[in-house]
Design a protein that fits this description.
By secondary structure, the chain is an alpha/beta fold. It has one domain: P-loop containing nucleotide triphosphate hydrolases (Rossmann fold), CATH 3.40.50. The chain is built from ten helices and ten strands.
Length: 331
């Protein structure tokens, strides 16, 4: 990661406003409100423009120039904490206020295909059929995309993968997002982005799912092996690491359940009463509780170790509001 000069969040906020920016702020606020609506997020988050998004964008703009390749910024945090909203809004501010072309990559869009996960479930362990943990992402594709983005010239166009959680499958290439070069900043976000390997004992199951399906620890051992090797090589490409810290693990289910209900509303808006007749899936509360047990061990691991390892720590309250931005003293 980068060698970050020691500073406080207050200093960073004050460094932004050197001239009258009221007109810019007004335009940005409207743009952010539209972005939040498209993400089915709380429009009130646009009120954080001056004290959160603009200072961050200003700082990243400074770090991103002059450079011969895009600045790669990692953003990690528990499921449903607001990573996608934060990075998407930040990308808009970087472009509108600082003319920086910013690409948001979600590790969720790089899940392996159902066929590949079925093969892993058969050859390694049945739990690898469920997307999410290290081992279920297509790391070769991620590295290829990062390489191509770094070399993308003006006028050149490429496509970025998209994964459809309602079908549990990667979308067809024709439906992938088009981007045009050159790229100044890559915001790489995901629940496990930047995660270190779990060095403490993983022998004992942590929840009923592990007791039932991984009594011998084969899945846990293999997940940690993936994390120790291939994933650390990927995360080494991150130059600036951010982490969103939830106040406790219990609230994570509420956040993730909120996401699932928003997905359900979105699908109902599109398909109406025909939703039950097509192959789209939204999890019930009980299904979601079981699904999240796949993530529980590593989510708690990250909540324990990440605050002391990252360049920037964003502390959240139970309503997903950023209450404090902290630059750890060892950077």
């Amino acid at each position: 990661m980068m060698n970050i000069q020691a500073l406080t969040w207050t200093q960073l906020q004050k460094s932004v406003f050197t001239t009258d920016q009221s007109s810019l702020i007004q335009r940005l606020r409207f743009d952010i409100e539209q972005t939040l609506k498209s993400l089915y997020a709380d429009v009130a988050l646009s009120e954080n423009l001056e004290d959160l998004y603009l200072p961050f964008a200003h700082w990243i703009d400074q770090l991103a120039q002059p450079r011969s390749h895009p600045l790669v910024v990692g953003m990690g945090g528990a499921q449903g904490c607001g990573k996608t909203v934060f990075t998407t809004v930040l990308s808009h501010v970087l472009y509108k206020a600082y003319d920086k072309k910013c690409i948001v990559l979600s590790i969720d869009d790089f899940y392996k295909t159902r066929m590949d996960r079925e093969r892993m479930a058969r050859d390694v362990h049945p739990m690898f059929m469920t997307r999410g943990v290290p081992g279920t992402h297509d790391l070769a594709l991620i590295n290829n995309i990062l390489d191509r983005l770094a070399d993308l010239k003006a006028g050149e166009v490429m496509r970025l993968p998209c994964f459809d959680k309602s079908t549990d499958e990667r979308r067809h290439v024709k439906d992938w997002q088009e981007v045009e070069g050159p790229v100044d900043v890559i915001l790489f976000e995901g629940w496990c982005v930047g995660m270190p390997e779990q060095k403490q004992s993983i022998a004992a199951p942590i929840n009923p799912l592990e007791e039932e399906m991984d009594a011998q620890g084969v899945w846990r051992e293999q997940v940690n092996q993936y994390l120790t090797d291939d994933y650390q090589q990927l995360f080494a490409r991150i130059e600036l690491m951010l982490w969103m810290q939830a106040p406790n693990y219990e609230v994570v289910f509420d956040w993730r359940n909120k996401q699932e209900r928003l997905l359900e509303e979105h699908l109902l808006d599109i398909h109406g009463d025909g939703l039950n007749k097509i192959d789209l899936t939204v999890m019930s509360n009980e299904e979601l509780k079981r699904f999240m047990q796949f993530y529980e061990r590593l989510t708690k691991h990250m909540m324990s170790v990440m605050p002391d390892k990252v360049d920037v720590l964003l502390k959240l309250d139970e309503k997903q509001v950023v209450t404090k931005v902290q630059f750890p003293t060892h950077h």
